[in-house]
Structure formats: structure tokens, C-alpha cells
Amino acid sequence: MRPFLKWPGGKRWLITNFKHIFPQKYNNYFEPFLGGGSAFFYLAPQHGMISDINVELINVYRVMARNPVQLRERLEAHQEQHSTEYYYDVREHIPADQVERAARFLYLNRTCFNGMYRVNQLGKFNVPIGTKQNFTDDVYRFEEYSQILQNTYIRAQDFVNTIRLANEGDLIFADPPYTIAHNQNSFIKYNEKLFSWKDQKRLLSALVKARSRGAIIIATNANYPALQHMYEENNFYTQPVSRFSSISGVNEGRGKQEELLVASFQIN
Questions:
Q1: Looking at residue 254, what is its pLDDT?
Q2: pTM for this prediction
Q3: How does residue 218 score in pLDDT terms, banded at 50, 70 and 90?
Q4: What is the three-state SS of the chain?
Q5: pLDDT tens, 36-51?
Q6: Which CATH architecture has domain 12-53+157-263?
């Protein structure tokens, strides 16, 4: 199934072009940087844990799992009232009710500019309205999404706390936050704010430990020489892969970009 959220850095392109790298057999599934969940919904694992540090994002998944019908009804209500004025009014106010909050998040995700997720220094969502007018074409599938989520633990927590639970035969898909950099300076400038070098080292350490317990590792990252060297030095297999990027707001910034595929096994 396609994910119900559009997310910057989402991995729909990976599923489309490199689905063969995912093993057919594994025990539990662990995804510590959930985002839009492309890999999760492609695999539809029987058991596992998905997590993210974004509390609002995790609330959407929990509500989708537990209250898909109510979430559909609330999103359809947003559809009926959608306008520029309504969008900014919804963006300004965060409801206390979990279902209402999830519907707000999903509404803003589907109607904001280019599906971006950005908050200001006060933690308030501040992306302007986009051009999409109709955004409820998949609501009939919400109960299917709910069914896939039923046997999965959904947690708002640091990635290390998720990875440390993976054991022999479990599959970890780790897709940390990063942007595609055209040179080393821009990598440091942009990515240090998203996911610091210290976090990169914490992630590597957690994956090394999980591999030693027998977990299967698949990860993605920016195609940055120091990162590739760091993983290869710790006996991971790496491969630069290309994707089409449409995140940039200007045409000159769109086109094929390279990312780094990392695995605990030989990548074919």
C-alpha cells in the first residue's frame, strides 16, 4: 500500500526501484525514523515497532490504528470547509483531542505547499498553503491502513531506544533525516541542523550493536564521502543510488540526486 502521508525525504522512490533489497523472511520489523512509512506499508510486517521523535506524527499513526473511521470523518469535514482562510485558521489552532489533532495534521500535510513539514522556533507549523483542493480520495482505505498497523508498537522515542530492541533475524530499516548535498560544505550546513554528526555516530553505534545481535540492517543516508567511509570501516556494504528529487521549490533544484544505501549484507 502507498503511505497516507507525503513526507520530505520519503522513500517511495526506494520502494519503486530497489524493493528487491528487502528480505522476504525476517522476524520483527523495526523502523526508528518513521516519516511517511513507505517501507513499512510496502512490507506490511506481521510484528514490529515503528517510531519517531515527532510526537504529532506518531499521534497520527496511533489514531489511524485505533480510530480510522473517526479520522476519516474528520478529514472529510475539513474537505468540505477547505479554503485559504480555513487553512490558516486550522494551522493556527492545535486541538486537545487526539483524533482532532491527527485530522488537523493530515489535513495540513495534504494541503500545504509540497507536503513539507516545518515548524518555527516555537514549534508551530508554519508552511503556507499549497494548490491541492481535493485530498480525500483514499479515505476508504483508512481501515486497511488500520489493519496493517494493528500488530505494530507505535512509539514516540529516540531512535536508539527502538534499535536496541532488535535481535537475531529482525529487520531494521533506518532512514534518518538528511537533505541531499551538492558539496561537502552544504552537507555540513544543512544536515548538521537536521541530524548532527554526533547523531550519525550514535546511529552507527546502535546499528553495529544490532548487527552483532543478528539483526538485518538496511539504511539510507546522504551520499557523503565521510559517511560512506564510516560505514564501510565498520564492515557495512554501501552503494550510491539515484532518485528523482521534487522537493526543491525551483526548477533548477529538481532532478536526479544521489543517496547512499547501506546494508549489513552484499547489495545486489
A1: 44
A2: 0.91
A3: very high
A4: CCCCCCCCCCCHHHHHHHHHHCCCCCCCEEECCCCCCHHHHHHCCCCEEEEECCHHHHHHHHHHHHCHHHHHHHHHHHHHHCCHHHHHHHHHCCCCCHHHHHHHHHHHHHHEHHHCCCECCCCCECCCECCCCCCCCCHHHHHHHHHHHCCEEEEECCHHHHHCCCCCCCEEEECCCCCCCCCHHHHHHHHHHHCCHHHHHHHHHHHHHHHHCCCEEEEEEECCHHHHHHHHHCCCEEEEEEEEECCCCCHHHCEEEEEEEEECCCCC
A5: 999 999 999 999 999 9
A6: 3-Layer(aba) Sandwich (3.40)
CA 148 – CA 141 distance, rounded (Å): 11
Rounded to whole angstroms, the Cα distance separating 74 from 96 reads 14
Single out the residue of 65, 60, 68, 72 nearest to residue 36, CA to CA. 60
Say if residue 103's pLDDT is above 70. Answer: yes
Q: What CATH class does 64-144 carry?
A: mainly alpha
Confidence category of residue 185, pLDDT binned at 50, 70, 90: low
Cell numbers describing residue 4: 497516507
Provide the residue ranges of all domains of the chain, joining segments of one domain with +.
12-53+157-263, 64-144
Residue (of 231, 93, 67, 99) closest to 260 by Cα position: 231
